[in-house]
Amino acid sequence: MFTGLIQALGTIKPLGGDSWQITCVSQSLSIMQDLAYGDSVAVDGVCLTVEEILKDGFIASASPETLRRTTLGTEQAQQGYVNLETSLRVGGKVGGHFVMGHVDGVGQLLGLEKTATSWEMTFTAPEAIARYIVPKGSITVNGISLTVAAYEPELSQFTVAVIPLTYAETNLRYLVPGSLVNLEGDILGKYVEKFLQPGHRHSNNTDITPAFLVEHGYM
After folding, report:
1. HSE (CB half, 13 Å, CA atoms) of 46?
2. SS3 for the chain, per residue?
3. Count of alpha carbons within 13 Å of 210, Cβ hemisphere only?
4. Rounded Cα gap, residues 16 and 67, in angstroms
5. What angle (nearest 5°) sits at the alpha carbon of residue 110, between those of residues 86 and 106?
6. Model-level pTM?
7. How far apart are CA 5 and CA 99, in angstroms?
8. Using alpha carbons only, how large is the chain's radius of gyration in Å?
């Protein structure tokens, strides 16, 4: 589990088979201080397991399914930078929101605009992720915890306002219209969706309905 607060930038390259080498850029080597074999690291929002520690990075495996569902296997990812975050430790600060590292789909940057206080970035969202998007809710873009500023369901697109610090310290600053991004919906929305499915019952055999969720403070 992660928080969506990026700790470092790196590069990624294939080593053959399902092995990938992730290398931290020089100013981001602090992430290596307590990295250990078997640790989980979110690479552009994709949870990968450290299989070998290198001087300035690590080696991990990414299955064909992972490459199909994310941007990691694309030319774009291999020619640019990826966002890195190590997994949340017990007692650690949750500055963003709970991020699982399980990408729901790939979106595309439609446009960006610099305002007086932030960068406004608009992305497309496939149906697999669009149903979890709500205004002022949380969404993960390339592993970054962001707040949805606006959502247009008829266009399947959403806008986030990115503060200058986040823009400067992540790979968002390298995106241009047409760039692909990994998207993960809020895990809380996924559980609510499951509870609302027809036939789902609580442990006391109570039907989970919108009225039930409102009554118990979930909506």
Report:
1. 26
2. CECCCCCEEEEEEEEECCEEEEEECHHHHHHHCCCCCCCEEEECCEEEEEEEEECCEEEEECCHHHHHHCCCCCHHHHHCCEEEEECCCCCCCCCCCCECCCCCEEEEEEEEEECCCCEEEEEECCHHHHCCCCCCCEEEECCEEEEEEEEECCCCEEEEEECHHHHHHCHHHHCCCCCEEEEEECHHHHHHHHHCCCCCECCCCCECCHHHHHHCCCC
3. 0
4. 13
5. 45
6. 0.84
7. 10
8. 18
Give bridge partners of residue 41 from the DSSP assignment: 48, 86
Given a contact cutoff of 8 angstroms between Cβ atoms, the answer to whether 109 and 14 are in contact is: no
How does the average pLDDT of the chain come out, rounded? 87
Distance CA 2, CA 61 (A): 19
What would the two tokens of residue 135 be?
């205004």
Q: Which residue has the higher pLDDT, 1 or 196?
A: 1
Which residue reads 């053959």 in tokens? 16
Question: pLDDT tens across 107-149, in order?
Answer: 999 999 999 999 999 999 998 888 889 889 899 999 999 999 9
